[in-house]
Structures are given as C-alpha cells and as structure tokens.
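Case study 2.
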Amino acid sequence: MMPCALALSPHLDDAVFSAGGTLAHLAASGWGVTMATVFTASVAHPKDFALACQLDKGLPAEADYMALRRDEDRAAAHHLGIDEPVHLPFREAPHRGYGSPPELFGALRPDDRIELNLADAFETLLRVLRPDLILAPQAVGGHVDHVHVVRAIRAARPSAPVLWWRDYPYTVRHAEPQEPLRHTFAHLPGLEIRFGSQSEARKAAACAAYTTQIGFQFGGAAALAEKLREEGAVERFRLDGHLAVALPPDA
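Prediction:
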C-alpha cells in the first residue's frame, strides 16, 4: 500500500508556492498526495476591504473570486501530478472582520474563534485520510489565517509526523520576515528536500496556474519564474515527529 501525504494549505496557492516541488516529488515517487486548502469559501456580494482584495487582482466586483481560485487550484494539482484537491468551506480573514493589510499581519482578533472549527475539520480529515505525513505552514510572514491553521493543526494533535514549511513568498519579501510562532518551531530539526528538474518544472507550472495571484504577488509570470529559479529546487522545513515511512531520495 502506497504511503499518503496530506498538505494543509491556508489559501489557494500556499502549499504549491511553499512545498510544490516536494509534493510533485512525492507523487512521482509513488506516494498518494492530497492538498487540502482551508479558506476557500465563496462569499456573495463582498464589501469594503474584502472587495478591495478582489478588485486589486483586476477582477470585477460581480466575479466569484473564490470559484476562480478553486479552479486555479485544480489546475495546479494537475500540474503537480497529485490527487484532486480538497476545498474546505471556511472564509478568508477579510470576511471575518480583518479590515486592512496591517490587520491581516497583526494580532488575532479576540472575536475570531475560527481555529476551533478548523481543529474539528482537521480531526475529521485526518481520520478519513490517515496520512503517513502532513505538510503545513510555519506562519512565516504572520498572516492571521496561517497562524490560525498552525494553532488548529496542533490542537488536532495529529499522530503523523509534520513537515512545517517556510511560507513562500513571505520568506523572500523581507530579510527578516515576521515569525510570530518562531518559538513553536525553533527546537525542531531543520530538513531540506531537494528535487529534480521534472519536479521543479511541475512546481513552476503549478505556481503559474494561479493566474489571479501572479501579478499581485510577483509582478508577472516572468518575475515568478525567476524567483522560483532563485530557490534552486530546494524547499526547507522543520520536522515534528518521527518519519516511519522514508522520504524518497532526491531525484
């Protein structure tokens, strides 16, 4: 029976940007790979900052922004060679009362209790999929949705080992990016996963599939491709737990 990996992605692009090469490498090595994204719910008639987060991607107000992004995610999963992605029905932070870019990267709102629901959802997902390995964010950059995901995963107490990824592109936007959960991961051993040219190409194609994001995040497809080349076909993690199933060798 083939081993199974589960990537828990806050948003529809995080897992691919941060760990897409590793996911492609695992899939090419015979692993079953599922990418589950947390905050994917469509919200009708967005307003104020939530609407601005759509308009600044060049989309009209009447577009179903998250439906477009879910389609991009399916295309990205296809490029990686992994299973049909799972989309959990939770709303992004701008729909939960966070009203500006600084608020997205600031303190958690005291009335935002979303992680309790996330922990329940993660427990169900883990029970159904029974993964041998989990991949998840460290919340580098400090985005509140990423922080909630980390806290909820820990609350769900997974029995499988976790590879906590370095959240890209926050890792390259600042020389010293925010790491609000640094103390949570500082004691865990670091792990580098290198992958070959085929997995590197699959990651590049998967990243480029998020067409609504590329201009805003990177300044265009060419800039994205250059940024990925600079990463050198390596992704960095912190390992929490014991790997009972060996990772495939670099290829």
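The longest strand covers residues 234-240.
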